[in-house]
Amino acid sequence: MSLLVDVEMKLGDFSLAARFDSPGPVTAIFGASGSGKTSLVNVIAGLRRPERGQVLLNGEALLDTARHIDLPPHRRRIGYVFQDARLFPHLTVSANLAYGEWFTPRAARYALRPQILDLLGIGHLLARRPRDLSGGEKQRVAIGRALLASPRLLLMDEPLASLDAARKAEIMPYLERLRDEIRIPIVYVSHSVNEVMRLASTIAVMEGGRLKAFGPASDIAQRLDLVPEEERDEAGVILDMTVKQHDPATGLTELASAAGRFFVPGTIAPGGATARVRIRARDVMLAAEEPRHISALNIVPGIVAEVLAAGPHAVTVRLDCNGEAVIARITRHSAGQLGLRPGTRAFAIIKAVSVAGPAARARP
Amino acid sequence: MSWFSLTADEWEAVRLSLRVATVAMLASLPFAVAIAWLLARRDFWGKSLVNGLVHLPLVLPPVVTGYLLLLGFGTRGPLGSFLAEFGIVFAFRWTGAALACAIMGFPLMVRAIRLSIEAVDMRLEQASATLGANAVWVFLTVTLPLTLPGIIAGMILCFAKAMGEFGATITFVSNIPGETQTLPSAIYTLTQVPGGDAGALRLTAISVVISLGALMVSEYLARRAGQRIAA
User: Fold this and answer.
1) What's B61's domain CATH number?
2) Which one of A25, A80, A110, A306 is CB 3.0 to 4.6 Å from B130, fit for a cystine?
3) Can you tell me the ipTM of this complex?
């Protein structure tokens, strides 16, 4: 999949100018509110027309102002999941789901209703009306409605933003299944580091209507300067690891990466599979010497690459562990005590239970 | 003659009024929906002029509207003589009464439907477009069903206005028993002749009953439609 977006537009005092070419499959557009994320996806969907711009999906022009091409939204076949579900209030859940399906030519349909119902867990809601659904259920039906139109690309604009923490946690696994099982290219808009890091393979960071950074998720995750102040707690790295084996006796799964061996609790995936593991900076301790007799299972040696201030009393330390990055958030005091400077050796200590956290998908 | 039984002429006036009002309401409905949608959802050159023309019958004296209709659609009027070639005659026919009533009720109907279209969340229409619906389908499957309570209200307002229309009707198509003598004309005529009081009272009572009934039916329909679309 390839998605090229090149947009220049004015919205009152605000101007938006961004260009990126994403290999997908999940492209996250990340940024604070007001950074132009929604305008950007509205251009992709065809709901907004920029003064100048180009949107190419797998080489096909959906918009090209230079060539006077501007497909209307209904002919783009791009699914759109809005922040506020936008289910049709006069239709049942079943009719809402059938809506997009009905407008899709038979030959272009790939989404299977039973599969989508099962994937999103909405089979029991069919006879209900949107007003009788909870926020999380509404959002799942909205995702199903968009998918059943068999779109070529799925846009999701802050689909979890209007939900409380419990509902977010309820939907997140469905989004991960969507990414892994339907294999549809997704553009995911969010201001949440956690959501973006869990889902994205490519990240575009927006700030004040400009593209501040763009690249593979694992690269962007290391850029300490990109994480907004209030989300610093969610900063961390993404490591793609290979599943080695699961030991039923201890209940631990062994993962291998360039940085070293990792142990996480639970079964993650069969041996040989790739698992994405997110290690949050706040879950990492640092030691100047290799610690012994310690409960933490994961101890990774590395070289300090960068020490950055993170607020008045803390610093963020990026460790180069044989080519992979691990980020630790520790107090300024500890960093001074250990004498951490770029070039010094250090050991990252990560508790297995925190590695298993949200990113490793522990399936029974 | 008993107090409660209608004379043949009176009965004829009731039937005629119902027919005129129903035809006026139904015939103007498609135009009202189209104009209301244009005014609510589109910006075009001359929009305020269209809006003004639609509302004109509301502010003009009904007699003036009736006279303008007579000038335009009378047997010698430009539109009247043109349509007469196709066998469509409005002057001094019940169809003329229906036309006058439709014109008089039109602003009320357009207003109710326009407000109701403006209340439809345009973000739902956007969602519909991203799911593959073109403008016509968006209108038919999202805008129209969500506008239903407003359409019902507009129809009833138009019907009620048509039942009570007097000035424009009598100016345009006169007051011919059995052809153009609607309820209000009949009541007016009865009040002008000695001994007509009883008949006028009977027709007045019928007017009240029909209007009240229409209002109740519309309330019921609008409530049911409203329940269906409540978010």
Assistant:
1) 1.10.3720.10
2) A80
3) 0.79
